[in-house]
Amino acid sequence: MRLVVLGATGGIGRHVVTQALAAGHEVIALVRDPSAVPGSADTLDVRKADVLDQGVLTAELAEINPDAVISALGVRPPVKGPVSLLTDAMGALIPAMRSTGIRRLLVVSAAGAYDEEADGPVTRYVAKPLLKRLLRYGFDDTRAADALVEATDLDWTIVRPPRLLDKPLTTRYRVGGDHGLKKALNIHRADVAHYLLRALGERGTHRRARVIAI
Question: pLDDT 10s per residue in the chain (214 long)?
Fold first, then answer.
C-alpha cells in the first residue's frame, strides 16, 4: 500500500514508518522537519509540509494518491493551556481527503479521554477523572478532533491507546469492541503502530473506535 503518515517524527509515528517499510509499504511522511524521520529506503518519501494547511494537504494528496492516511499526531505534555493541534489538523485533512477522493483514514486518539462501558470502578471513578483533570487541555483537543472524524463519511478508524510505554514490539495486545476494553492500562507505542497497520485492511474497523491495551 501507499501510505501517507502524519506525525512521523513522534513516538508512535516513528514506529509506523519503520514497521510499514519493513512490511513492504510505500511511505510518504509529511512533516515539519524531514531530518527527524527515521529510516531510509527506496519506498520512503519524506516531504516538508504544513499539515495544518488544507491547501498544502490537498495538493500533496492529489499528487501522491495514497491508499490510506495514518495520523499519529499528538500533543506532547505538559500542556498548560488550551491547544488545537489535532482539531486543526483534522479540520484541514478531512476536506483535503474528501476533495481528492482518499477514503481510508486511521487516527491515534486517547483512551483516557473517554468513559467506556467496559471500564471498571477504579478506572471510571478514580483513574480517568484524575487523568481528565491533569490532561484536560490535550483531551479537549482529542475529543474535538475525534468528533470531526466521526462526522465524516470517510472510512475512518480511531485507535484509543491508554498509557504509552517505550518498549519493544510484542504484537501481544488486546483490542476492544464498541464498548471499550476491560483493564486497559498500558500499551507499547510499537504495538499501537502495529495495530494501525493491521487495521488498514480490516473492514470491520471502518467507522469504529477501538481501544487497545496489553
Answer: 999 999 999 999 999 999 999 999 999 999 998 888 876 678 899 999 999 999 999 999 999 999 999 999 998 877 889 999 999 999 999 999 999 999 999 999 999 999 999 899 988 888 898 888 888 999 999 999 999 999 999 999 999 999 999 999 999 999 999 899 999 999 999 999 999 999 999 999 999 999 999 9
This prediction's pTM: 0.94
Cell of 25: 509499504
Look up cell 513522534; give the residue.
10
Q: What are phi and psi of 10, to 5 degrees?
A: -85, 180
Give the CATH H-level superfamily of domain 2-213.
NAD(P)-binding Rossmann-like Domain (3.40.50.720)
